[in-house]
Each structure stands twice: as structure tokens, then as C-alpha cells.
Specification:
The chain is mainly α and about 190 residues long. It has one domain.
Length: about 190
């Protein structure tokens, strides 16, 4: 009998091979985990956020399975891709919210030096995204680690598996990336 993790990996391999019929079996196996990760992330959002975890999961899942040529190596890679998509969805949502409010006079909230980076405003979310883009220009692996931890809630072991590096390397680069981001966002806040 296959474990759920093994079954997910097998279904993802079939999906990557073009077998779209597995989508109906895949969703129940990954939904709870996607929802848990979205819920954990959304706890750090402002209380009046209009995007709920369930909506974030549904939009993420649709984008995952609607890819023209999905290529998921395994379960961890699937959740890493989901983390990237959640980031894009949340950034797009923040931009839409800001454009509807025309800036709203909100201030930037700096990243906390903790396991979970928190932004309580669309401006803060966009500041994090801008900082991550700058980080990617000189260390794309650190940017990927932050994205998978912050937006996707992946564990260190999962990130190590996706990137093919040791857990110690993930921990070290996560620490360096957080420190760099904190400095960047603090400087940006001081300038505004």
C-alpha cells in the first residue's frame, strides 16, 4: 500500500507525463496541506484582508494544474511551485488593493526577525516582493529559500530536497537572507 506522500509523487509524475486524468485523485491528497500552508501564511496578514486561505488555495491549485506542461519532480517540488504561485497571487492581490485605494497613505512594515516574515499591509507585501527581486539578482537560491519558507511554508528538509542541497546550507542561507531582507526593508522604511 502506498503512503499518501508516495501516491502524491506518483500522481505528480503521471501529471508531468501529460496524464490530466489524475487531477481528480491528486486534489484530495494535497488540498489539506495547501490549505494548512495558506492558513499559516494568512495569519500574518492584516485582519481585513479580503483574500481568504481557501480562495488562495483554490486559485493556487488552479494555476498548478492548468500549466501547459507541468513538470513536478516530486511532492516537495510541487509545494515549492505552489509557494511561488501563492507569492504571485498575493502580490497581485496587494497591487490591486493598493491601486483601488491609490496608496492609502499606508506605511511599510519591516520584516520581523523570526521564522515567519510578516507584512500587515499591501505596501509591506510589495516591499517584501521588491526586496526579494533585488535579492534574486545576486543570490537566486536565497530568494528561492525565502519564497519557499515565507510564502509556501515548506520545511527546511523539503527545501533542501527541492534544491538538492543540505539542510545545513538551507538554514545558513535562510538566516543570511532574512538578515539581508530585514536591513533592506528597514532602510526603505527610513527613506519613506
Amino acid at each position: 500500500m502506498e503512503t499518501p506522500s508516495t501516491e502524491v509523487t506518483a500522481l505528480l509524475a503521471r501529471l508531468s507525463g501529460g496524464d490530466k486524468s489524475v487531477i481528480e485523485r491528486l486534489m484530495p491528497l494535497v488540498y489539506d496541506e495547501l490549505h494548512r500552508r495558506a492558513s499559516n501564511y494568512m495569519r500574518g496578514e492584516r485582519s481585513d484582508h479580503t483574500l481568504q486561505p481557501t480562495a488562495l488555495v483554490h486559485e493556487t491549485y488552479l494555476k498548478l494544474v492548468e500549466q501547459r506542461e507541468p513538470n513536478f519532480r516530486n511532492r516537495a517540488h510541487f509545494f515549492a511551485v505552489a509557494a511561488h504561485l501563492m507569492r504571485r497571487i498575493l502580490i497581485d492581490h496587494a497591487r490591486t488593493h493598493l491601486s483601488s485605494r491609490r496608496g492609502g497613505g499606508q506605511s511599510i512594515i519591516p520584516i520581523e526577525d523570526s521564522l515567519h516574515l510578516r507584512t500587515d499591509t499591501p505596501v509591506g507585501m510589495l516591499a517584501v516582493d521588491d526586496a526579494l527581486r533585488r535579492l534574486a539578482t545576486f543570490d537566486s537560491r536565497q530568494e528561492q529559500i525565502v519564497e519557499m519558507r515565507f510564502f509556501g511554508g515548506l520545511r527546511v528538509e523539503e527545501i533542501a530536497e527541492v534544491l538538492g542541497i543540505s539542510t545545513r546550507t538551507v538554514e545558513r542561507e535562510w538566516t543570511m537572507a532574512r538578515a539581508w531582507l530585514y536591513t533592506q526593508l528597514r532602510e526603505q522604511r527610513a527613506e519613506s
